[in-house]
Automatic annotation (TrEMBL):
Any GO MF annotation of the entry: kinase activity
Name this protein carries in UniProt: Aminoglycoside phosphotransferase (APT) family kinase protein
Source species taxonomy: Bacteria, Bacillati, Actinomycetota, Actinomycetes, Micromonosporales
Pfam families with a match to the protein in the record: APH
UniProt KW keywords: Kinase, Transferase
Family matches, as InterPro entries: AGP_Transferase, Aminoglycoside_PTrfase, Kinase-like_dom_sf
């Protein structure tokens, strides 16, 4: 299979010396483009059905400009759905030191910086905010309703569905305490955190799920999808993040139930059944006075 031409997305005068395919899937193919006398670049080429993701990625990285450790957009070819980005050093954390908690402090610092970017409304981000909502309570009611419907459609047990629905209503005073939407990564786990050979964090990638929302839902997703029951990782993440807002802990606990439903539905959809019973046990425990341990793993992207 021949490689595409990268001329339209590269800075003037660049000479390509080598192209290495770094991976891909249904959304895009990733290339490392090595240049004569210059740092290599990453070029992402989106598949036909996912061209809108290219515009979203460019928009979100523009919003994040100035935050250390994120790629910078170098060029874009919208006709062929290709974007060139600066290449950050390192490899995904889960390929290097998956049991080391020290990087989580840096992840918390990154989220704190990201959450200082205020947004005009709650909602899913494309190049603007899709179906914008003015308040967090309305937004989270809508999200819980949709996720609960998907959970039941995927065969989720009625008792868990009903218990989570009740807890979501009980938690509405905490949800309403959010003082405004911020930019959320919405997929910050060890696969999207780069580290060097010593385990030092070198960057953060993959903003394709970015959301304008309560910052606590971002922390909750990292805890539920990635940290699980590791007290050391959670402590490091929160130490890096800093003081939580009013009812922050209560909101995290509530949003973890939402993300556990999301993770159960995702695993069910791809036939990955091993974590499903544990997730249901955790949800039942959380709904009846316990707390979620969490199930680390590659969740929906």
């Amino acid at each position: 299979m021949s490689l595409p031409s990268f001329d339209a997305v590269l800075p003037d005068g660049c000479v390509v010396t080598e192209v290495v395919t770094r991976g891909g899937g249904s959304l895009h193919t990733v290339y490392e483009v090595r240049l004569a006398g210059a740092e290599p670049l990453i070029v992402k080429r989106y598949s036909e059905g996912w061209r809108w993701k290219q515009a979203k990625e460019i928009h979100v990285y523009t919003l994040m400009a100035g935050i250390p450790g994120v790629p910078r957009v170098v060029g874009a070819d919208h006709e062929r759905a290709m974007t060139a980005l600066t290449m950050l050093p390192g490899r995904p954390k889960w390929d290097r030191m998956p049991d080391d908690a020290s990087a989580y402090r840096r992840m918390g610092e990154f989220q704190a910086a990201l959450h200082r970017i205020r947004m005009p409304a709650y909602g899913y981000i494309v190049t603007g905010i899709l179906e914008p909502v003015a308040d967090n309570l309305t937004f989270m009611r809508r999200r819980f309703a949709r996720q609960l419907d998907e959970f039941r459609a995927a065969g989720g047990p009625v008792d868990v569905h009903d218990a989570v629905a009740r807890r979501a209503v009980e938690g509405e005073p905490y949800v309403a305490a959010c003082d405004g939407p911020v930019l959320c990564h919405n997929d910050l786990h060890e696969g999207n955190v780069l580290v060097d050979d010593d385990g030092t964090v070198t960057g953060f990638i993959d903003v394709e799920n970015a959301l304008s929302a309560d910052p606590m839902t971002d922390l909750a997703k990292t805890i539920q999808f990635d940290i699980g029951g590791s007290a050391a990782k959670r402590a490091a993440l929160l130490a890096g993040y800093g003081p939580l807002p009013r009812y922050g802990a209560e909101r995290i606990a509530l949003y973890r139930m939402y993300h556990a439903l999301e993770l159960w539905t995702w695993f069910s959809s791809i036939g990955h059944t091993e974590p499903l019973p544990g997730l249901l046990d955790d949800l039942r425990a959380a709904c009846f006075g316990g707390s979620l341990r969490g199930t680390p793993g590659r969740g929906p992207t």
